[in-house]
Amino acid sequence: MAQRTVLVVLFDDVQSLDVTGPMEVFAGAEKHTPGAYRVRTASLTGRPLRTSSGLTVVPDGTLADAPAPHTLLVPGGQGTRRPAPHLVDWVRAHGPGAERLVSVCTGAILLAEAGLLDGRRATTHWAYCESFARDHPAVRVEADPIYVRDGHVATSAGVTCGIDLALALVEDDLGRDAALAVARHLVVFLRRPGNQAQFSAQLAAQTARREPLRDVQQWITEHPGADLSVDALAARARLSPRHFARAFRAETGATPGRYVDRVRLEHARRLLEDTPDGVEEISRASGYGTPEAMRRAFVKALGTSPAEYRRRFRTAPAR
Asked: Which key words tag this protein in UniProt (predicted)?
């Protein structure tokens, strides 16, 4: 088995977890399968640098002297918003030579600045997706997934998503058992699929300030198949339907109906991903009532049917 060199690019104001998260995954895989990976870090100068959290990191050496990588990994952080021109030049010159090009969080911005994402699908931290798409119109930015793979190029969303992507790469390289062993050691999920949303429905909305409304949010999450009409939810909050709808939107940023739609869609996606249950059973459990109602919701939100969604998920290489 050929050893894969993973080269992590470092720069001032890099996000430390973008660096250490994937490095821990690859280092753990090396312990599980000796000879699988050689992980190295490098910067323009090779001198110690400070991460965005204030942690000082000492690179293994300079980018000029770095070994030709199998996997070139570019982390994110504040430093990607004002990258040194020489760093962009180095990535532009050496990125195409890597067998696998990977970014974590806003590291995708650096890849885009180097022209390596033109015409490709990519993602980054949710907070920067809009500006990323505006500044780099040649990149097809996908704001929802936690990571996106387009050929030999893989980009991940914010911070901890780099761990998910690294585990997916280890699973590709060494198999599920190796990735599972690393995930267990790090006490993380083996596989959050790349098409999983960056935000759950609860995180996508604000948390209500008032306790009755927070309780209703929790009830919706725990009972997606229940009667979640405005009247029923208002009664649970002990408010009039009109008052409830107005207060819920003011405190969460979403109408009750929109919030319920998000929760039900997320619940149905998880059941399609993680269970063998049939579409009819899942449609009832998720509150859609009929397979046709769930199909319409999936087509509207995701552009695909539940059956096709499950097929794509279970055949995707990102597993």
From this structure: Transcription, Transcription regulation
pLDDT in tens, 266-311: 899 889 988 899 999 999 999 999 999 999 999 888 788 999 888 8
Please indicate, yes or no, whether the overall pTM of this predicted structure exceeds 0.85: no
Q: Identify which has the larger pLDDT, 155 or 2.
A: 155
Residue 49's DSSP bridge partners are 57
Q: Which CATH number fits domain 201-315: 3.30.428.10, 1.10.10.60, 2.40.40.10, 1.10.760.10?
A: 1.10.10.60
For the chain, the C-alpha Rg in angstroms (whole number) is: 22
Q: Taking CA 274 as the corner, what is the angle to CA 268 and CA 275, rounded to the nearest 5 degrees?
A: 85
User: Which architecture, in CATH terms, is 4-186?
Assistant: 3-Layer(aba) Sandwich (3.40)
d(CA 214, CA 314): 35
Amino acid making up residue 54 = G
- How far from 180 is each of 146, 164, 171, 292, 319, CA to CA, in Å? 19, 12, 8, 37, 12
Are 60 and 41 in contact by the 8 Å Cβ rule? The answer is yes
